[in-house]
Each structure stands twice: as C-alpha cells, then as structure tokens.
Amino acid sequence: MEIIVAQNAGFCFGVKRALELVARAAENKARPVHTLGPLIHNPQEIARLEQLGVRPAESLDDITGGAVVLSAHGVDPSVESEARARGLEVIDATCPFVSRAHQHIKTLCDEGYAVVILGDPGHREVEGLAARSDRQAHIVTAARDVEALPARKRFGLVVQTTQRPEVLREVAGALAARCDELRVFNTICEATVSRQEGARRLAETVPLMIVVGGRNSANTTRLKEICERAGAHTHHIETAEEVKPQWLAGVARVGVTAGASTPEWMIQRVVDRLRKIADESAGS
Ligand code: SF4
Fold first, then answer.
1. Is 134 left (phi over 0), alpha (psi -120 to 50) or beta?
2. What confidence tens digit (pLDDT) does each residue in 72-88 have?
3. What are phi and psi of 158, to 5 degrees?
4. I need a labelling partner for 157 at 20 to 30 A (CA). Which of 80, 125, 179, 266 fits?
5. Among 80, 125, 127, 238, which one carries the catalytic annotation?
6. How many A from CA of 9 to the centre of ligand 1?
7. Are 173 and 205 part of one and the same domain?
8. CB atoms within 10 A of CB 25
9. CB-based burial, 167-203: b 16+ in 10 Å, e otherwise
10. What domain range is 254 assigned to?
11. Model-level pTM?
12. Do residues 17 and 6 both lie within one domain?
C-alpha cells in the first residue's frame, strides 16, 4: 500500500511560534507559566507542554501569579488588560496573521462600516475578532446567513484565518448585493490556503484520506470537508490508535494530511501505523 503525506501538512508558522514562545518561557523556573485555555487545538501537544511544567488555566481566576500565555488564536483585549492589572507577566503568542485581522476590524469600525465576520461562532479566534468591534460585528458562517442581516449602506468583511476561500467569495457576493459599498479584507492566512490546496490535490488522487488533528480544531475540520468534496472517503482522527484496519481493506493508496496544530511526530505515528497494518494484512 502506498502512503502519501500531503504537502504543507501539520504545524504552521503561527503554531510553531506560539510553542517556541511557551518553551522559552518555561525555561525560567523562577515563576510558573500558564496557558489560558488550550494554547493550540491539539490535546496531545498540550499534554507534552504540561510535562515541561506549563500549566493550563481556564480563566485568570485560576492563576495566582507568574506568567500567562495568550494563545495563537488571540483573545479579547479586556482579558489581556485584566491580566496586566493583576500583575501577571503577559506573553502574547497571538499569530501575527490574527493580529492583522484585529487591526482590520478596528479600521472598519473607525471608518463607520458595519462589520461582518465570516467564521465559526464560539471559536476563540472569532470571539477575539468580535471583541475588536465591541461585539457589534455580525458573525456569518455562509452566504445564506447574509439575508438575515439588517440593511446597511456600508459593510466591511473580515474572515477567520482558517476559512475556505470559495466560502469567502460566496459571502462577499451575497453582501455586495445588499449594500452600496463593501470593503473586504481577505484575512485567510497563506498557511491555510497552501495546506487546503495540498489536501485537495492529494484527495483527488486517492480513495482514502486520513486527516489528523484535534476534534476541536477548526482548520482540521475544514480539511476533512475539503477531502470529502474532492471525492476521497475521509476519516478525521486525533491519534494513530484510532486508525481501524478495516478502513484499509482493498485500498492501494492512502493519503494523510494534518491540521495546523498537529506536530510532525503525530503525523509520523499515523504513517507508521498505516504501514504496520498494511504489512500485517499482506503477510496474513
Ligand atoms: S493557521 Fe495561519 S493564522 Fe492560524 S496560527 Fe497558523 S499561520 Fe497563524
């Protein structure tokens, strides 16, 4: 059986940067280091950080002192000011691409546009984006949601960094039909685009795709959708142990891709397990 790993699978620039910041902060054992909520959407990598002494906290109330790391997804600015007011050392691991989207929302608000965010409601990145508009932004998930928006002369559109470009085009088209002026900031990040493209190209050529990543990871969920649309039977797993031998029955080629917060060692474990199952079934 041939096992092919998609181009640009796994860690992106923003996640690598966040992990490096945390690892560096954890070297100083003079004070505890906390992450606020999961630093990235990958439970196994979070467990590895805990072994380095990094403590996860659900809220600032769980932290009595030391340093707090703001995740790559960004946070509500009031959380950052509150952390500083409580005397905590703040380590900002917000991905620069997310910070750029924050800045665009501020610009749109200052210039009087009604802000629309294309994103997953409740996702931390989207919550952080909405907070930049004082929670006045309308959050939509698809073009069909645009009909329900109140009439406005000027709309400004910003996108969660991990959305699909074709959905952005559909939403922008629907918004353009409902206002006099539309300003669009395409804030889908380049790492997302290239990972989605790599997954789609591979999924078009194999009957089976395995997508590796946290179940709560928006970009991993999107990769699964893309692989299914490209025609491959697709399974989303978090760990190698979830691969079932029966998935591989009669399959000559299998593709593997992974979300932005999936480390290389997890991808390799999945590849190793696929190889082991294939070798065992060939020998039986
Ligand atoms: S997916 Fe893009 S925006 Fe999100 S952390 Fe990675 S590089 Fe940054």
1. left
2. 999 999 999 999 999 99
3. -130, 150
4. 80
5. 125
6. 13
7. no
8. 21
9. bbebbbebbeeebeebbbbbbbbebbbebbebbbebb
10. 2-10+191-283
11. 0.86
12. no
